[in-house]
Design goal:
By secondary structure, this protein is of the alpha/beta class. About 40% of the residues lie in helices and about 15% in strands. The protein has two domains: about 15-155 and about 285-365, Rossmann fold; about 155-280, Response regulator (Rossmann fold), CATH 3.40.50.2300. The longest helix has 20 residues, at about 50-70.
Length: about 450
Amino acid sequence: MLVRRRHFLAGSVGVGAASVLGLELAGCGQSGPSNEWMVGAFLSLTGGDAQFGIDTQQGIQIAVEQINEAGGIKNKKMKVLFEDDKSLPNEVTNKVQQLIDRDKVVALLGEVASSRSKPGGIVASQKKIPMITPSSTNADVTKVGEWVFRVCFVDEFQGRVGAEFCVKTLGKKKIGLMFAENDLYSSGLANEFKKVIAELGGEIVKEAKFTDSETNFSTFINEMKAASPEVIYAPVYYKQMVQMNRQAINAGLTSDIFVGGDGWSGDEVLLKEMTGAHFTDHHAPDIPWDVSKKFVAVYEGKHKKKPSSLAAMGYDAALVLADAIKRAKEDTPKGIRDAIAETKNFPGVSGMITIDADRNAQKPIVVVQIKDGSTAYKAVHGPGSEALLGGAGAQPTATASAAAPPATASASAASSAAPSASAAVSASAAPATSAAPK
């Protein structure tokens, strides 16, 4: 894929972004930085996690096209400069510094992986530029500074839902665990999963730890098979999971024994080869939520395939940022940062998004099953899950509900700057009321 760094994102497609954000159809009389909202995005557009970065970029592009087609934000177009960090943490600091110091961006979007979002967030906090990560779920990412936010769930929640799904929904108590111990995402998710499995009376019958560069899992899989787990939890990224699954099949196991996390999302090879497996994710193309259905239709029309959850999260991150810019009481990074912090009940394609006091998103999580080269949702848990399905019987986990109750319907405190996103939901983005989980 050719990545054009200085690309003005504008287009003719639209699925309601203007009404959600309360944007006015006003022209942009001049061009140039003074008449544009310059936003930086640092993503893995090449390298080992390129699929994540490319999907996220595509979601961001659709959002920005809709924003600009609707007239921009406060009579200014939104322009995103993409930097490729090559899927390498040691590339991030330089890329983020360039976007801030050279390109004078007012905000940042990125990264997809926690191990790269964390160093990017450190720079953003030092430079006092707000940053929203679309999909980095490790808890430490937003702890690096007051300027770092996320629109995705955190791994404590994801690990708990994964464990409860294995024990309560699948009815399995003998669990195998395979993870990359040197990776922030994989190890963090595995540790939370282990803790909750113990709380639920389950047993980790075999644990296999390796590095994130491992490709030969034969010994691990043979030892795992000998332990006779009923299900194997593997919170690794898609590239390793494909190799692990192939070697597991050669050893006589089947793909449906595996359960994973959102690191599996979006890879066409994994989705083709792992029919029957389950994983926790941010979004599924068949969620019966009107905002989601409209986004899926636009994405399919543009890219001739269903969107991954990473594309959905890129879209949501860009729109949450645009909404904050619209509501900001002052047109500065500090003003934008404060408005992001005040986001409540934003109608994203992945569910209602409320930013809490720790700058994390209170929102639902989806459990999906791989079918026919795509994903189908099996359950939705957590804050706002019933609204996501139109009150169709979603079953939030008791722990998640107690820890993070659904937000109220009140508008953001910054609503004086612009109509709030939540106020527009009833008019243009109401959830479907007749759908039920499959």
